[in-house]
Amino acid sequence: MAHKVTTQWKGNMLFETDNPSGKTVFIDTSPENGGNNEGLAPKALMLSSLAGCSGLDVVSILKKMKVVVDDFKMEASGELTEEHPKYYHTVTLDYHFYGRNLDEKKIQRAVDLSVETYCGVMEMFRRFAKVKTNTYFHSS
C-alpha cells in the first residue's frame, strides 16, 4: 500500500503538507535558517511521528487489555550527526504513564509489543539510528 502526500510551498521557508486523512500541518525553520518558526521543523516532526506511531499502538493494546491509565505522554529526543547531511544517529523514546495502581507488567507488555512488533516508524528509525526506549511509572 502506498501513501502519497502533497507539500506546497507557501512563501519564504514555509510549506504546508497534507496527509492521506486530509489533515494538514505546516513545516518551517528557525529565523537563523531563514524561516519564521511558523510550522514544525522537519527533523523534529520525524520524532513526533515516531512517538505518535508507538503511542497509537500502546493505547490500542492497553484498551484491548482493559488497562486504565490517567495520563500517558512520550518524550522523544534525537542526537544528530556532526556532518551534513545531518541525521539522527541515536534516538530515545521515553514513555511516561500516570495513575493509581498502574498495572506495570501489562503496560510494559504493551510498550514492548509496539517497540518490537507493531510500530513501523520505529522499524524505519532502526534502519539509520540506535533506538533506545525507557518506561516510567508515576503513581498518583
Automatic annotation (TrEMBL):
InterPro entries hit by this protein: KH_dom-like_a/b, OsmC/Ohr_fam, OsmC/Ohrsf
PANTHER family xrefs: PROTEIN YHFA
Protein name: Putative redox protein
